[in-house]
């Protein structure tokens, strides 16, 4: 055996590229692609969307399904052709799978709570150690009672919704049943939301994802319509080979210029978690300034309907 | 309805059964950036493995990702006459490894030292060892010698040697990836191999494969 052959065959330790590392690298490439798209087309995501996303994501990342703690192999060999499908085709598959899936949480009463447990990892982009948390929250279904959330290790008591406050997208099942299950009509509803003027495509994208993120129990056909509505939004991007922070293979849905990627299970299309780029804000001379940018990933571990704060499934 | 393209989508009038060349993927990505992910899907594993062998798996996770981000950002400078993007990607990865020369040297020296310790431990027992254990120790010692030899190579020689050995590039591809003449590749490889043989030979350590061969032939 010559020296070159010996060198070729020499393996030093475990050199495995894990599915998580692969997905993280792929996501990094897509962030670079997004960044370029943003440079060419538009400025940053509006502050309203950032704040709303950060709040909703941090407070109660949750799913419209039931089995989010399931972990499967990362092998995509069983469905190789999906990688060559367009975003619209993948989203249509998601809609079809959602229509066929009848395993939902029981319909919650308005006086109950959505319980969620979420794993969070945050890495500062300017250096520093990665921090992790496992947050829990109890969210009043109709908002008539106080809610409790453990956010980044801190406890927050949220008062009931005020007399003129509403939640959008709604969490009360009766209100969700009133949303259209026709994708065109749903998209129209999402575009208007609570606004007097129609939202941009990115706003509609964001609300469609928030609708599926939950926590809420979706009436039959609503999640499917939401996926189909997403397919009708120009430039929505779908990454078939994503993996969430807990190692679950998923489909990443994102929109150029928005620093959020929503992840859905590759088979059931239940919400799994999200990735986002954010930053902490500081009040400087009376103005809020962005400081300390970070990259954050969240994985929904558990969702349930419970009778009270502190109760767990 | 306008939608972003699916990954792996092809453009133009190519035969649908024929995968797009790397060069055409790069060209398509000029207008449709998402298409660049096709190169990631094709070569992420190769690049990761190459960097992991040089710097370890943790650094490889980061540098492999960085390689594709840099490649994407520099894709308009890609020479479209080069059908294969592997040499280009290996070149970027090798440049990134170059920023971690000290880490690489430390890693190689540590591997060399660790094996030396294991080898000295082996001889102290004085008991005849099981064949399997002997083989493992020999293999480890051989690895240690190789690591030590690589650590002693000048960086530019090591780059050429490892692009050929671990990147599986030929001389022309190595020259392309490093942006040097092919004659330089030949001479650096020649010197690197000569030094490697000299160092390994001086240690007088049979390789694990050689031991196995001897064993097989009784």
Automatic annotation (TrEMBL), chain A:
Keywords: Membrane, Transmembrane, Transmembrane helix. The keyword Transmembrane applies. It comes from the Bacteria. InterPro entries: CU044_5270-like. The chain crosses the membrane at residues 49-70. NCBIfam families: CU044_5270_fam. This is Tat pathway signal protein.
Automatic annotation (TrEMBL), chain B:
Coiled coil: none annotated. GO terms for molecular function: DNA binding; sigma factor activity. Signal peptide: none annotated. Residues 39-107 form the RNA polymerase sigma-70 region domain. The keyword Transcription applies. It holds the Pfam family Sigma70_r4_2. One of its GO terms (cellular component) is DNA-directed RNA polymerase complex. InterPro entries: RNA_pol_sigma-70-like, RNA_pol_sigma-70_dom, RNA_pol_sigma70_r2, RNA_pol_sigma70_r4_t2, RNA_pol_sigma_r2, RNA_pol_sigma_r3/r4-like, WH-like_DNA-bd_sf. One of its GO terms (biological process) is DNA-templated transcription initiation. Gene3D superfamilies: 1.10.1740.10, Winged helix-like DNA-binding domain superfamily/Winged helix DNA-binding domain. NCBIfam families: sigma70-ECF. PANTHER family: RNA POLYMERASE ECF-TYPE SIGMA FACTO (PTHR43133), RNA POLYMERASE SIGMA FACTOR HI_1459-RELATED (PTHR43133:SF8). Belongs to the sigma-70 factor family. ECF subfamily. This is DNA-directed RNA polymerase sigma-70 factor. The lineage of its organism: Bacteria, Bacillati, Actinomycetota, Actinomycetes, Kitasatosporales.
């Amino acid at each position: 055996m010559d020296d070159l052959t010996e060198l070729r065959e020499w393996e030093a330790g475990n050199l495995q590229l894990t599915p998580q590392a692969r997905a993280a690298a792929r996501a990094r490439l897509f962030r670079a692609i997004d960044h370029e798209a943003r440079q060419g087309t538009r400025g940053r995501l509006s502050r309203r969307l950032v704040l709303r996303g950060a709040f909703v994501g941090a407070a109660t990342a949750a799913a419209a399904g039931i089995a989010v703690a399931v972990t499967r192999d990362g092998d995509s060999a069983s469905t190789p052709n999906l990688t060559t499908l367009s975003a619209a085709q993948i989203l249509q598959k998601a809609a079809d799978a959602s229509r066929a899936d009848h395993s939902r949480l029981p319909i919650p009463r308005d006086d109950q709570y959505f319980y969620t447990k979420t794993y969070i990892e945050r890495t500062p982009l300017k250096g520093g150690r990665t921090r992790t948390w496992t947050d829990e929250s109890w969210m009043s279904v109709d908002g008539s009672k106080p809610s409790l959330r453990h956010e980044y290790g801190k406890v927050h008591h949220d008062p009931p919704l005020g007399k003129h406050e509403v939640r959008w997208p709604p969490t009360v099942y009766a209100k969700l049943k009133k949303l259209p299950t026709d994708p065109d009509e749903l998209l129209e509803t999402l575009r208007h939301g609570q606004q007097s003027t129609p939202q941009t495509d990115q706003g509609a994208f964001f609300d469609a994802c928030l609708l599926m993120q939950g926590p809420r129990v979706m009436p039959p056909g609503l999640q499917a319509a939401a996926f189909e509505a997403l397919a009708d939004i120009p430039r929505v991007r779908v990454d078939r080979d994503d993996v969430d922070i807990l190692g679950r293979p998923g489909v990443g849905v994102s929109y150029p210029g928005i620093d959020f990627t929503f992840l859905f299970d590759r088979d059931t299309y239940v919400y799994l978690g999200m990735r986002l780029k954010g930053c902490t804000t500081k009040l400087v001379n009376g103005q809020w300034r962005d400081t300390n940018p970070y990259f954050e990933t969240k994985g929904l571990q558990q969702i349930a309907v419970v009778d009270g704060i502190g109760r767990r499934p | 309805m306008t939608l972003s393209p699916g990954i792996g989508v092809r453009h133009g009038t190519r035969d649908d059964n024929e995968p797009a060349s790397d060069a055409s993927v790069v060209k398509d990505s000029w207008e449709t950036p998402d298409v660049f992910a096709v190169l990631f899907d094709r070569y992420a594993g190769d690049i990761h493995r190459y960097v992991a062998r040089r710097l370890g798996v943790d650094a490889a996770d980061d540098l492999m990702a960085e390689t594709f981000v840099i490649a994407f950002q520099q894709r308009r400078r890609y020479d479209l006459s080069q059908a294969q993007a592997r040499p280009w990607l290996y070149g970027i990865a090798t440049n990134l490894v170059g920023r971690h020369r000290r880490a690489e040297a430390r890693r190689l020296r540590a591997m060399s030292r660790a094996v030396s310790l294991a080898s000295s431990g082996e001889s102290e027992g004085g008991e005849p060892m099981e064949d399997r254990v002997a083989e493992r120790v020999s293999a480890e010692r051989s690895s240690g010698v190789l690591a030590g030899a690589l650590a002693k190579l000048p960086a530019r020689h090591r780059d050429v040697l490892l692009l050929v050995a671990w990147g599986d590039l030929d001389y022309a591809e190595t020259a392309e990836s490093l942006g040097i003449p092919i004659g330089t590749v030949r001479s650096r490889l020649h010197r690197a191999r000569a030094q490697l043989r000299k160092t390994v030979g001086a240690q007088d350590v049979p390789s694990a494969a050689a031991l196995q061969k001897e064993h097989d032939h009784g």
